[in-house]
Design brief:
Strand content of chain A: 15-25%
Number of domains of chain A: 1
Oligomer: homodimer
Number of strands of chain A: 8
Structural class of chain A: alpha/beta
Helix content of chain A: 25-40%
Largest interface: A-B, 38 and 38 residues
CATH topology of chain A: TIM Barrel
Number of helices of chain A: 9
Strand order of the largest sheet of chain A: 1-2-3-4-5-6-7-8
CATH architecture of chain A: Alpha-Beta Barrel
Distance between the termini of chain A: 9 Å
CATH class of chain A: Alpha Beta
Order of helices and strands of chain A: EHEHEEHEHHEHEHEHH
Chain lengths: 239, 239
Amino acid sequence: MANEWFTGWRHVFKLDPDKELTDEALDAICLSGTDAIMVGGSSGVTFENTVDLMSRIRRYEVPCALEVSSMDGAVPGFDGYFIPMVLNTDRAEWILGHQTMGLLEYGTFVPWDETAAEGYIILNGEATAAKLSGANAGLGTQEVIALTRMATRIMKLPVVYFEYSGRFGDMELVRQAAAQAGADSRVFYGGGIDSAERARQAAEAVDTVVVGNVIYTDLDKALSTVAAVKDASYVRRNG
Amino acid sequence: MANEWFTGWRHVFKLDPDKELTDEALDAICLSGTDAIMVGGSSGVTFENTVDLMSRIRRYEVPCALEVSSMDGAVPGFDGYFIPMVLNTDRAEWILGHQTMGLLEYGTFVPWDETAAEGYIILNGEATAAKLSGANAGLGTQEVIALTRMATRIMKLPVVYFEYSGRFGDMELVRQAAAQAGADSRVFYGGGIDSAERARQAAEAVDTVVVGNVIYTDLDKALSTVAAVKDASYVRRNG
């Protein structure tokens, strides 16, 4: 695949600027052996809480990327930037409208080589992001495959992201859809990974496993997902 | 840039399956020295008239690509396939909805390596494609630059296409926006090229110049655009 700054990431911890995390917990996360930290959230993200979290993570060597979901939280100084697009919505402003408005204002400051679109397919209708964006979360396997092919093989988006935020997804659907993604795109999965076993299942289906909420509810379980992902057997599709 | 099957095309003739073209005219077009023939149209395209045109072009060595604007006209046997997406519309079905429905039905038959998205920015509100898709054609230079950056540098679409179908565009706007496209994407221009002089102007602004309607109204003028494009001085942006 294209050699992007996020190529090779198998395990990622996603930290929410709007949630509390002690220094001890952050230390454990950053030294866990995860491939990267992603900073992002669906609500309550501000410039101040994003800067604050970034500067705390910056004391460690782990790569740190920002998911830019509003211009309020667009903070310089990260190693990379993801621009989420929602693919399964009828609201064009969530596909590329808001993002283009952001570029209209801040386009001259964007570090292009470290910035990439994430094509989100949101599959849990109860998720905040689904409600905000009007996502059609009730897609079947064939519809998700078609959208995955459109995103990765036709549009050539750098990342397609299966998002079940808040609950663990249908791994058979995810596995089948991920297998149809183009080789030049990276497939992310996020949602409901609250144990080593679930992390392993996701890691056998997709390129990159994103672990979020469990960090805030059960740190030990969160930390156990790192080794589970690294040890999982996974044969990457070849296009 | 990425080495795609359309990389390096500087001049393209676009033929409409719904329009008449004599064998003599087709012969002149195919032997003109153009880099490729693109087959496509906004209305009246059927399986039958597309197959018919393809088989006539196939007698020549010139590469021949199909722009798939409806599933009715999706015909196998071309060297390559473009999937148009409209970027400046609020109607999500024209961005990626119709295309994904097409893949839902025909996804197993698509030659992925020879298929690529074209991100259309439609800038003539009177064009049939603009009316069909509800395009916001009245964009200013900065808005077109933002959309071009979104399409090529964030989404990484293989092609962005400035479309003025039916009239010659604002070359200063086109030049400025094309200069901000990412190096890995190809920039196409189409619309109102009815003379060597206009072909030269477009060729100085973008990677690939598409000549269409004038084929049907003044063949000699159409043919004169090939040399004009090849001789135009153009320094490609480097990202």
